[in-house]
């Protein structure tokens, strides 16, 4: 398995690049957002890669960050989503925007991706929402609100990582933490806060 490639960007195509690594040219399929951020031909580049193997196909898919690669693999875990569709989804928006859409069950955003219909978009949301929650909240979701780090502080970190400003996040968490005697898990706080932010 090829995990990363570092070398000279020898050639740019419409949906792929050739990376020259010590005289060997690797053809790497990339999304439109990645292509736009890559350097000009002749300059050094580094890509995180996913090797796609099928009976009739062998392909390399490239990403600028480990986070994008991880999200790409998550998308591939959804029934009916192949590497081309996963790349199209990744090209649709910033990673935080896509994650936020899935957490908020906003299948409409994903349905605007060419080749992804409403049913497939709904399936992506359904299958990935739980996995994304596990990734974002990790073991903290399993901790009671009283144990471990402050859930309010953690909720703020999660919301800002999803692209909200600290001020928006603080106000949303403040509203979300009202009621229930103020004892909420990080996941409860973020879920309620996202609903409030969505309305606003």
Spatial order of strands in the largest sheet: 1-2-3-5-4
The tally of helices reads: 9
Order of helices and strands: EEEHEEHHHHHHHH
Instruction: State the major sheet.
Output: 5 strands, mixed, barrel
CATH architecture descriptor name of the largest domain? Orthogonal Bundle
Number of strands: 5
CATH C-level class of the largest domain is: Mainly Alpha
CATH homologous superfamily identity of the largest domain: 5' to 3' exonuclease, C-terminal subdomain
What average pLDDT do the residues reach?
A: 84
Number of domains: 3
Our estimate of the beta-strand percent is 15-25%
Distance from first to last alpha carbon: 46 Å
Indicate the CATH topology of the largest domain.
Answer: DNA polymerase, domain 1
Structure report:
The structure is a single chain. By secondary structure, the protein is an alpha+beta fold. It has helices at residues 32-37, 66-76, 83-92, 95-103, 107-111, 118-137, 151-161, 166-176, 186-199, and strands at 4-12, 16-21, 24-29, 44-54, 57-63. The chain has a five-stranded mixed beta barrel. Strand 4 (44-54) and strand 5 form a beta hairpin. Helix 7 crosses helix 8. Residues 139-147 have low confidence and may be disordered.
């Amino acid at each position: 398995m090829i995990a990363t490639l570092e070398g000279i960007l020898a050639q740019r195509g419409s949906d792929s690049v050739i990376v020259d690594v010590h005289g060997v040219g690797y053809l790497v399929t990339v999304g439109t957002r990645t292509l736009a951020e890559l350097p000009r031909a002749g300059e050094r580049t580094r890509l995180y890669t996913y090797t796609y193997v099928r009976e009739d196909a062998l392909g390399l898919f490239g990403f600028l960050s480990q986070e994008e690669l991880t999200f790409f693999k998550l998308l591939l875990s959804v029934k009916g989503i192949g590497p081309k569709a996963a790349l199209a989804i990744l090209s649709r928006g910033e990673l935080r925007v896509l994650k936020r859409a899935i957490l908020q069950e906003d299948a409409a955003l994903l349905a605007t991706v060419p080749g992804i219909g409403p049913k497939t978009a709904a399936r992506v949301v359904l299958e990935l929402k739980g996995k994304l929650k596990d990734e974002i909240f990790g073991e903290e979701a399993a901790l009671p609100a009283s144990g471990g780090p402050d859930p309010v502080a953690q909720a703020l970190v999660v919301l800002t990582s999803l692209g909200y400003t600290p001020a928006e996040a603080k106000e949303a968490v403040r509203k979300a933490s009202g009621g229930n005697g103020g004892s909420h898990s990080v996941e409860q706080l973020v879920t309620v806060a996202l609903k409030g932010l969505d309305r606003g």
